[in-house]
Write the structure tokens for this entry.
Amino acid sequence: MSALVIETSGLRKEYTSRRGGRRVAVQGLDLAVPAGGVHGFLGPNGSGKTTTIRMLLGLSRATAGSMRLFGEEVPQRLPSVIGRVGAVVESPKFSPHLTGRQNLLLLARSISAPDARVDAAVETVGLTGRDADRYRSYSLGMKQRLAIAATLLKDPDLLILDEPTNGLDPAGIREVRDTVRDLGAAGVTVLLSSHILAEVQQVCTSATIIGNGRLLASGTVDDLLAGAAAHRVVTPDPVLAARVLRAAGLAVTGPAEDPGDHPGDHRAGHPADHPGSEPDHALTVETDDPARVTRVLAEAGVWLSELTPVRQDLESYFLALTADDTLGGR
Amino acid sequence: MGALLKVELTRLRWRRAVVLLLAAAVLVPAVVVGATAWGTRPLSEADLASAESDFGGRFLRQEVRSCGRTPEFYGLEDVAAAELPEACRLAVVSSYAGRSPLDLSDSLESGAMLVVAAVLVLLLVLLGTTFVGHDWNTGSMSNQLLFEARRGRVWAAKALAVGAVGLLVALLVSLACWLALLAIASSRDLSAADGMLLDGVEQCLRTGLVAAGAAFGGYALTMLLRSTVATLGVVFALTVLGGTLIGVLGGQETQRWQPQLNVMAAVTNEVTYYDDSGLEPACLTGMARPRLDCDATQRIGAVQGGSYVGVVLLALGAVSVVSFRRRDVP
Ligand SMILES: Nc1ncnc2c1ncn2[C@@H]1O[C@H](COP(=O)(O)OP(=O)(O)OP(=O)(O)O)[C@@H](O)[C@H]1O
Ligand SMILES: [Mg+2]
């Protein structure tokens, strides 16, 4: 048994369109999700998150590559592990004419779970009192809650949530966040795909970022952000300072850039220092070593008037990393 | 598997369209039997008198006399000579009045029981289709597969549920219809031929099997095409256009492959039809030599009809289950 709960290697998925064209949704993805904790699974629209999740759950067939859940080869051994996996994939899918409760009962009985577990799950997601209404009369948020309730029927060791807070109100978002955090703390491994990165940053211990079906970055949230540390530098002569710092091998972005130096060139650049977002004389230097900045500038006779660490958040990091991978950028 | 089967039976019970179709499968045959009973009700003296006056006396009396001379032409060869005049009057007048007494053997081969079988087959195809078409339309199939990943089992449980319900309903309804017809006949003092009761029960069994096959066929085709509308389109095309196509293609003895004829043979034990494509050309020119066999009446027995239906269903089932196991589920 490996200590990884989810493991993929060289995972690839091609869709063939009716006209015979091929679209590669996932290309050579190596995913590693350790046991325990909440793992963010991030990427722009169309980057292949849902496709990857659907392959892991046996809903769609990988074109190439291998996958493991709890160390078991899937989809071959999926039946032996699916009972430990709860999942919400994209939008919730239930029978509209049945009540929420009936929908859950059918699922629970198919795995021989006692009906009492349905009541517990309904209670946990706060649908008590509305569970006897038809599913089609539910609001989007109630549908999401029902989908989360369905994942709890199995008492899962792994929870795969594909945008679970889509359509929830602020209170609902917080409830899901708390539920996810509690589950993570209780030893359940959670794979959380979401576009609300502030949320992800609050609950996730580690994260994987993909773009265009490829792995862009993976690791603990702290490591990911540390690698992207930067400092904001203010000097009376930003042009000279930028030249000096670049000569010392540091990556610099700022208003006084040389022609041809635009943010897109820096894959790990910081959107916060896009031109126009800072006062004219401020530079951003990508380093976690402020002493070096001070020394280099002092040796060239440039005096600092301000040196502050730039507080990096997951959102800016994500945006910088995936700048080239947005849908329009193809 | 037991749990899955129970779940599918519950799902059937909770589907309103299924309940409506089952209600129709009881009501429509009841109406057919009722209409038969009404259409064959014995002629009262008043009916006879009014028919006699409607059709004029001389012509009618002539025919009654000719019936007295050749009762075998009127199916009255077994009637005692003393009762013959009255029997002849009844037979001739009722044939003028367009109302003949209930004939159990006719109702099996071409009358009420055949109509009941056709109604059951049609309604059960719809039942099999709508039952699972709904799962595809709502996308809830993928949700079910997250709880039971063994797709072969899911397919089989649904097939079994649909087939069992189809068999039970068709068997009970057709038996009830047959017993009702027998009761009507005996209440009118119409004697049933030897073995008629058993013949009818056997036909009910065959009706049950064929109708269950129809439910299964509708189900399997919908699992393959994943849409109620597409399935109904294909079924319609096969029955209407398929028959026409076979007719247009011509060739010798192609009538033998008409689906409707074979289904009918499987239900009624034997079907005869007219097909002169296999005859010597001399037969058609009217210049037949004496000993040439110019009988264009063909027959299809229950064995051929049953094998035809069975092979089609087996092939359809095999393609359906293989496709369901391999293809991505949306
Ligand atoms: N059934 C399908 N047929 C063809 N192409 C598909 C299919 N499903 C997904 N794709 C394509 O695969 C790519 C990845 O889609 P996917 O749904 O995995 O993205 P995602 O990361 O989940 O995006 P989002 O954040 O919008 O949910 C997209 O380009 C999409 O168009
Ligand atoms: Mg998605």
